[in-house]
C-alpha cells in the first residue's frame, strides 16, 4: 500500500513580514563550509570564479575573502549592484547588499564592512495595503539603497510564517506573463 501523504501545514497570511527594497542588480552568494575549509562564490544559478565571473562579483569576493569569512558558516545571499549592472543606480562603484535583514541588521550583529544590507521599508503584519503603500512610497521617494535615484525596481516581501519571499516590481507586475517567471 502507498504511504499516505499528509496535507502540509498552511501558513496564516496575516503574520509578520518584512518588506525590503528590491535592488536591480545580479544575485550573488557566498558559501562558507561548517569547518571553514571551503569558500565558494556563486551567482543565481552557478558557482563562479574570477575567470568565469558575473559582473566582477567573484573577483571582488576573493579580494575580500578574509573579511567575508566573518559571515560565518552557511550560504549568504545578496545583490551585487551599482556601476555597470542593470540600472546602475548612479553609483561610481559596485556594492554587495545582503538579503537576510534579521541576521545582519545594525542592531543584531556586526557584518563585514564590505557588505551592506538591503533597506527595510516596512515590518509588521502582512496585508496587501501595506505592500501597496510601501511600493507607492518607494516610487514617490526613490531608492533607499541609493538616495536620489528615482527609478527603483520594487520591493521584496519576506513572509515569516511561510518562510517565503515574494517580489512586486513597480513597472512589470501588472503585465500578464507567459508561462515563465521573470
Describe the structure.
The chain is an alpha+beta fold and 182 residues long. It has two domains: 7-23 and 119-173; 26-117, DNA ligase/mRNA capping enzyme (D-amino Acid Aminotransferase, Chain A, domain 1, 2-Layer Sandwich). Helix content is 16%, strand content 30%. It has four helices and ten strands, in the order E-E-E-E-H-H-E-E-H-E-E-H-E-E. It has helices spanning 57-63, 65-68, 101-104, 128-141; strands at residues 16-22, 26-32, 39-42, 47-48, 74-82, 94-98, 115-117, 120-125, 154-159, 164-169. Strands 4-3-2-5-6-7 form a six-stranded mixed sheet, with helices on one face. A four-stranded antiparallel sheet has the order 8-1-9-10, with helices on one face. A hairpin with a 4-residue loop joins strand 3 (39-42) and strand 4.
Domain unit count? 2
Number of helices: 4
SSE pattern:
EEEEHHEEHEEHEE
The CATH architecture of the largest domain can be named as 2-Layer Sandwich
Structural class: alpha+beta
**Can you identify the CATH class of the largest domain?**
Alpha Beta
Biggest sheet strand order reads: 4-3-2-5-6-7
The percent of residues in helical segments reads 10-25%
CA-based shape: globular
In the predicted model, the low-confidence regions spanning at least 5 consecutive residues are: none
Q: Over the alpha carbons, how many angstroms does the gyration radius reach?
A: 18 Å
Average pLDDT for all residues: 91
The end-to-end distance, rounded to whole angstroms, is 41 Å
- Write down the CATH topology of the largest domain: D-amino Acid Aminotransferase, Chain A, domain 1
Q: Mind describing the biggest β-sheet?
A: 6 strands, mixed
